[in-house]
Amino acid sequence: MNVGPRHPTGAGGRNRRRRGRRPHHGGQPAGRDRQQQRGIYTAPMDHSYRAALGGDQPSSGRSHSGFAPYAPAEPEPLPQREDATSRIFAFVDDLFFQAKIQETARKLNVKVEFVKTDKDLSDRIKQNGEEKPSLIIFDLNNANAKPLSQIPKLKSKLKKTSIIGFLSHVQGDLKQRAHEVGCDMVLPRSAFSQNLPQLLRRHGAPQEESPLQ
Fold it and tell me: Is the dihedral of CA 180, 181, 187, 189 positive or negative?
């Protein structure tokens, strides 16, 4: 629409109000100041930490009942021995759990060896002489280790060795099948992580000190 001469567009119009900026000190702060005042944290949030910690507990660290989950006390480390042999072997190829097992074992002065095949395990056992493994850990989702076919063979050879498997908490069918083929204990990943120090401390003790012997 064309503007006629009787309707000036400049600041000299009679009915045009002058507009100014509102002072900040009398009203609500804008932008980031308002977010800080309301306690809003705007940085991106990575929820992958829940999976790394097991994924079974809410992000608040509390169970769905509103109570904090039971956390076992950290066990005392074993006396350090240079000549100690490995009594715990793990068929675990997940890098996160490998690192977790290694770090926990280091703190407890426990030796844990990772193996990929039954031949690897047999060779390591022969190197230990007469001492048999106290514990074998299986990641039941480690397809390369073939846990459901390996476990019954190991149970027939190593009758006094405990075999523990871990899996996702939603894999109920796999848990049942692992029990059926001879797995002594099957734990969700979160429970395995939580009880790992106690398991390594108990089974990593020398044969004369182990409560299972």
Answer: negative
Give the chain's domains with CATH numbers: 92-204 (3.40.50.2300)
pTM of the model: 0.63
Q: How confident is the model at residue 11 (pLDDT cuts 50, 70, 90)?
A: very low
Q: How far apart are CA 87 and CA 120, in angstroms?
A: 14
What's the start-to-end Cα distance of the chain, in Å?
A: 98
Is 170 in a helix, a strand, or coil? coil
Nearest to 192 by CA among 118, 141, 117, 122: 141
Rounded Cα gap, residues 163 and 203, in angstroms: 11
Question: DSSP readout, 179-196?
Answer: HHTT-SEEEEHHHHHHHH
* Mean pLDDT value across residues 140-152: 95
